[in-house]
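Exercise: predict the fold of this chain.
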Amino acid sequence: MRIENTLEERGEMYGEFRTHSVISQTLKESIWCDDKGLSAYQKEALEMIAHKIARILNGDPNYIDSWRDISGYAELVIQELEQTEGATDCEVVYTTIGDEE
């Protein structure tokens, strides 16, 4: 496949590169503006998530793989944090409403 075909195919899926890059860079600037001491893997994941969000906003919002990629980058951070001393998590307690006796 020629590069022109690939670029045309991606343009149909993700929109024009010029507008995607404006959205993506704007989101990424927010990450770098006040990173709260993020690790390299956290910054990278957030940047990739920002990139995927920009693709969704600029292109086809119904393309499932873009959403899957976002959850994948979040999961990579979760896996790292689960091995990190001092990382915190919440405790989820589920209750059933309406079935009390």
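Check your answer against the key: The two ends are 65 Å apart (CA to CA).
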